[in-house]
Amino acid sequence: MSSLVILSIAFVVLLTSIWKLNAFIALFLVSLFLALAVMPEKNVINIMKDGFGNTMASIGLLIILGTIIAILLDKTGAAITIANYILSKTGESKAAAALGITGFIAGLPIFCDSGFIILSGLSKSLSAKTKTAMPLIACVLGCSLYSVHCLTPTHPGSLAAAGILNVNIGNLIILGTIFAIPGFVVSYFWVKFMTNGKAYPPAEETKNSLPRDEENFPSVVSSFLPIVVPLFLITVGSLLTMIHSASSPLRNFFVFTGQPVIALLIGVALAMLLLNNKKMITINGVFEIAIEKAGPILIVIAAGGMFGMIIKETGFGTATGIALSKTGLGLVIPFGIAAILKTAQGSSTVAIITTGSIIVSMLPSLGLDSESGKLFTMLAMGAGSMILSHANDAYFWVITKFSDIHADVTLRVFSTATAIMGITVFVCIWIASLFFL
User: Fold this and answer.
1) Per-residue pLDDT of the chain (437 residues; tens, 9 = 90+)
2) Angle of the 371-384 helix axis to the 332-345 helix axis, nearest 10
3) Is the CB of residue 109 less than 8 Å from the CB of residue 154?
4) pTM
């Protein structure tokens, strides 16, 4: 069974990167063949539909609304206004680093896929404006969002696992953010190294039907609002959800508007205000372009979720994790289990929650049942859940499709960066544990 799962992952990589088969077809066929080979007694079609549908339900609306915002920012020239503003502060040579820092801060309260979708239009504008390779810009942004997503309990995986292990959330937020910094820094330099000297093109300047006279472009403040307001609302909503305070109209308002779908819908409304021509034919034209662009992206990402669901149903990740837990290697155990689960089934959230459920009963035997031991266990699990984002991870396909880069480039640059990032973060955690455990 294990060999078939590993072979299926390799096949997806080969089909999409070497033989250039359409990503959806590759994921669908490999998912079907793996399911039939490993669990023929189950209703494999229902499992595949569940994986496809669950992924579509979790991020489908986010992708559509985020795409509408990106198209509106591009069509109105707001993306160029933002790009010009950032470049005026950082210089063209530091555009990737500036966007990475933006992503790191934005990623603290929001999911990495939501953040990438919101900022994808900006990343393309910066790439086109500075003639910087799109894989460099996209993968730096992807890594910056991903680093905090895996380590801080404002995100569901860490939050749920912290509850399982009874870890102080405040301490975990502080240390998770601190340890995410070396992860992001090393991934930035790794992405620069992997793209240096390669003939990767910048994003193309899009051809727009609307006037491109820069004098008529939106102001800096109005251009930033469709991005900043959703990020602010999601941040406040996440914090209020974590803090169990008394209900009030103001709290209920921010909890409601802080839901990613509602926050992005507000972002769409703010982006529509940027249109000089607000006739229905113009608005519908933008919606049609966005929906046409979002459709293929949705299909591939949902197919990645389907592939992940099939692997999860085989039990490969859990069985391997339990076997590894018997080796008695301290913090290496939660790190290794989470890394295996992540690589096997694709979801960092599932990896860290499952690892927490497996490891909680073993904490005394591993000598990690103290408050600091549980905290470092959580951090080690977060580092492990970074390794390895590839074809069975929906976020991998978000980066690939929203950046218009090929899957083999994402695999070569971003996937390897996630491995380097996770290992670096764990080494930092392990060194720190020598002083505090």
Assistant:
1) 678 887 887 787 678 767 878 878 988 998 899 999 988 878 889 999 998 888 788 778 887 888 888 788 878 888 778 878 887 888 878 889 989 988 898 887 677 887 888 888 888 888 988 889 999 999 999 999 999 999 987 677 787 788 888 888 778 888 999 999 999 999 999 999 999 878 888 987 655 444 455 567 889 899 889 888 987 888 788 778 767 677 888 889 998 998 888 988 999 999 999 998 888 988 898 889 888 878 887 887 788 778 878 877 887 666 765 666 566 678 998 998 889 888 887 888 878 877 887 787 778 877 888 989 999 999 999 999 999 898 888 899 999 999 999 999 999 999 999 999 999 999 999 999 999 87
2) 30
3) yes
4) 0.75
Give the whole-angstrom CA distance, residue 391 versus residue 139: 15
The one-letter amino acid code at 390 reads H
Cα–Cα distances in angstroms (integers) from residue 241 to residues 194, 196, 237, 245, in the given order: 39, 43, 6, 9
Report CA-CA distances (Å) from 324 to 48, 94, 320, 321, 335: 28, 43, 6, 5, 10
Nearest Cα residue to 428 out of 186, 168, 92? 186
